[in-house]
Amino acid sequence: MQIATTLAEARALFDALPRPLGFVPTMGALHAxxxxxLRSAQRGSASVAVSVFVNPLQFGPxxxxxxxxxxxxxxxxxxxxxxxxxxxxxxxxAMYPPGFTTSVDVGPVGATFEGxxxxxxxxxxxxxxxKLLHVVRPDVLYLGQKDAQQTCVLRKMIxxxxxxxxVEIVPTIRESDGLAMSSRNAYLSAEQRAxxxxxYRALVAMREALARGASKAEANDIARATLSRLAMPDYFxxxxxxxxxxxxxxxxxxFVIGAAHFGATxxxxxxxxxxxxxxxx
Length: 281
Ligand code: PAF
Hints:
There is one protein chain. The protein is an alpha/beta fold. The chain has two domains: about 1-170, HUPs (Rossmann fold, 3-Layer(aba) Sandwich); about 185-275, Pantoate-beta-alanine ligase, C-terminal domain (Pantoate--beta-alanine Ligase, Chain: A,domain 2), CATH 3.30.1300. Helices cover about 35% and strands about 20% of the residues. It has a six-stranded parallel sheet, with helices on both faces. A hairpin with a 2-residue loop joins strand 8 and strand 9. The chain is globular. The protein starts with a strand and ends with a strand. Pantoate binds near residues 55 and 128.
């Protein structure tokens, strides 16, 4: 696996890779969910590039930027074992040199739910992914469904700004008890980890209640009742899968979404619901 750390090295490296080139942007701390993303990228592309960059622009001042897990050597081994062709691992100065002030704001799709709790988060995500797409110039961008609102934000940016890249959304990978894989699961205590799958169970209960004809308010109550007593619910909603706007019931492709605090750790999860396709994940 070849590694680039500067933008110039990255451009030369990625330009030489066989096409179509699939690209998986990450913040490292790679787990089995990322490996699944890589597998999807490998199935759909002649070569696969990955970035590892903990992007300061997407963290709020009181968030976990400083303590976000970083282990580039372990990530490099995981990527090499998975057969990834090229890794881009820039430092902050390479991505944001002195004087860097531009940002990408996609508007309403990034202003609700996670955008309320984390006001500059999606601007930071859109800005770094825009820059990464200019450097890597992939044919296909692979994103995990786990961060459903992020997928909507990035698809909107790509459509509005005419980035010449296709987007593939890869279904969420779960632990055997249903917990969605996430780098932040590492922050959970043993007790919180045992209760964390209740977020997934709450979403399944909400989806089933809606399918039985319950109102959204009733389905929301059922989700909250299913969530562990140890957790503090933040939101449960049904949103349009394109615009991420709340809807009453999933008549069109939708996400049933939820967020809850398990101690100091805030987890998010979602289920994709298509009228003609009921996902189990
Ligand atoms: O999902 C993530 O890991 C990050 O938000 C991303 C897309 C790599 C941008 O920093």
